[in-house]
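User: Show me a protein chain along with its predicted structure.
Assistant: Here is one chain, sequence first, then structure tokens.
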Amino acid sequence: MIILFLLGFYFLVCVGVLLFNFWKVVSDRIVQLRTSHLTQHYLSLFRTISNGQFSNSDTFAIRSLYSLTHLIAFQRAFDIFEATDDYVASESLPVLAHIVQRLCPYYSKRSNAIQAYYSFLINRFQVMKYAPSEIITSFLLDQVQNNNGLYNLENALRAIYSSDNASLVVEALEYLNIADELPINSKLLADGLLTFAHPDNLIVLLWDNFSSYRPELQCSLLNYIRYSSNKWGTQILSLLDKTTDLELQIACLRYLGKYPEDRFFSILRKLAKESETTTPWEITAVCASELASYPCDETISLLIQMLYSKNWYVRNNAASSLKKLRPTLKELQEILDGNDRFAKEILQYYFDLPPEKEIRKGVAPT
């Protein structure tokens, strides 16, 4: 009796699994067909807009976007439309931006995940450029201030960067600055800032407020400045002279390597020559890396001396920089014939020494 009961139970479970799988396949197919139909519908709408036959007073299409399914189809249709004709799609953005902007009162009250997606759409359709408004600005700043998750924060910041308003970007950074800890990765923050269309205007404001920012945020902003402009060497040197924060010093030194100048070379050379007992090894290691931007005999000689460092990172960066500068084997012979095993090993690693055929050429292999 028990066996028959177990067999019957097992049979019912198998039938249930089969019915569930059948329902799942059918429902997925229905969703796929519906999404495809909606995508075609919105592609037709975009063509109407591109022909100048759509008015913002046409509310039917806008009301349908209060459905998340319709909104996703709207975005996917635009991706297809843009891939088909990028110029026509960009010409349609002002109208589409106003459509997305009108959805804000509804989607600002939805769940955090949906708000994050709506922030993404604000950036995708360049609402802050073509249809900026107080309600959109307030929504995005609330997303930054409340920090309801990385996607909410990152998408809101990206939307703010898409505006032409440097003051608004600085205001958003102020919310990051007063948080208990920096709520976003330094690289993500710098990469996002690089999408802002007017870096010189933004950097002026950043320097005006720089001293009020926490060190972690300052480092991110220095990385942004390094990749954005070569006009701020004087301010970088002043900060390097004043700050005692190691990460800030490293960020400043990387700027000096990014945009080579004689005044920068003298500072890198001076720091590289200082004893590791008085200078943090991190500073020496960064100098060894950035000296690769200053190709000359003095640089090669200094990097060769740095190969004798007791610190592996200093030796590694010095050897890496030497490889970029391509010294002759005669210049490296002192190391190769010497008794410092660590200096010799790091040199052999980077230059793949010695094959005899390369030695006979008189130039270190690349």
